[in-house]
Structure formats: structure tokens, C-alpha cells
């Protein structure tokens, strides 16, 4: 996956508020539809992106004035989505996350990451200084 192979790049910076998750879902849906994903693949992408955003809002940033970033890298045969959060790991071991107060919350976070991995073709978690990223790739016409 080389940057020179990329056709387009769309970037969003989203406030750390639940009401903006729908903006990300709609954006992901529109992009996926435009590049040729079928309805089932579009729904998979929307659910995965919403799950990442919801986990960041619920378990990560506690400051409503902070934003997290989403990049949609558009290729001819796939969509690569990177969600970047400053300050709180997105894919950390949820059993040791101090922001998760109960066993129930820990189980929800584990389930969320499992769902993301099941819906997308590739999922990668990265740490870069104080930035934490989850990169998700969905290939057109490829089953999970």
C-alpha cells in the first residue's frame, strides 16, 4: 500500500462528543459507496468506524474540547481508514484500562475490538509518541 497508489485522501477532525459519531458513519458510507463497495461491505465499514469512535469517546478522551482525527485513504480496490487519538490508547489491553470501571465495560471494549477485526480485512494498532492509531482496511469484493 504505497501513498503514490492512493487516489484520494479525506480528513476529518471530530469533537469528542457522541453526537458526531453519525457524521463519521455517514462520511464513511458515502465514500465507500462512491468507490464501489456493496451494501453489506458499506454496513461493515460503518459499524467498524462507529465502534472505534464510540470507544474513543467513552473510554479515552475526557475533555469535550479535544478532537480525534479520521483519515480515509481511497484506493482503486480498497478503503483504508485511520483513526488517531492523542493521549489514550485505542487498542490497549482493556483489562488494564483504568477508565473502564466495571467488568461489564471491559467486556464491551473487548467485544468492540473483536467486532472491528471481524468486519474489516485488516486491523492494525500503532503507537507514535502520544498519538495512538487504529488502521482499518476493507478491500472491495473480498469476504472476511
UniProtKB/TrEMBL annotation:
Positions of the Histidine kinase/HSP90-like ATPase domain: 14-138
Domain of life of the source: Bacteria
InterPro entries: Anti-sigma-factor_SerPK, HATPase_C_sf, HATPase_dom
Keyword Transferase: yes
GO terms, molecular function: protein serine/threonine kinase activity
First-tier enzyme category under EC: transferase
EC number per UniProt: 2.7.11.1
Swiss-Prot/TrEMBL keywords: Kinase, Serine/threonine-protein kinase, Transferase
PANTHER family the UniProt entry points to: ANTI-SIGMA-F FACTOR RSBW, ANTI-SIGMA-F FACTOR RSBW-RELATED
Protein name: Serine-protein kinase rsbW
Originating species: Caldisalinibacter kiritimatiensis
Lineage summary: Bacteria, Bacillati, Bacillota, Tissierellia, Tissierellales
Amino acid at each position: 500500500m504505497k501513498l503514490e497508489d492512493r487516489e484520494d485522501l479525506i480528513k476529518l477532525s471530530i469533537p469528542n462528543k457522541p453526537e458526531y459519531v453519525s457524521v463519521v458513519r455517514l462520511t464513511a458510507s458515502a465514500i465507500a459507496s462512491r468507490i464501489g463497495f456493496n451494501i453489506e461491505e458499506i454496513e461493515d465499514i460503518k459499524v467498524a468506524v462507529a465502534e472505534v469512535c464510540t470507544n474513543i469517546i467513552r473510554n479515552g478522551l475526557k475533555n469535550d474540547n479535544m478532537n480525534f482525527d479520521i483519515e480515509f485513504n481511497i484506493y482503486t480496490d480498497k478503503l483504508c481508514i485511520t483513526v488517531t487519538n492523542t493521549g489514550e490508547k485505542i487498542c490497549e489491553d482493556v483489562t488494564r484500562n483504568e477508565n473502564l470501571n466495571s467488568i461489564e465495560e471491559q467486556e464491551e471494549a473487548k467485544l468492540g475490538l473483536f467486532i472491528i477485526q471481524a468486519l474489516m480485512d485488516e486491523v492494525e494498532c500503532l503507537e507514535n509518541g502520544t498519538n495512538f492509531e487504529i488502521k482499518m482496511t476493507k478491500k472491495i469484493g473480498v469476504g472476511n
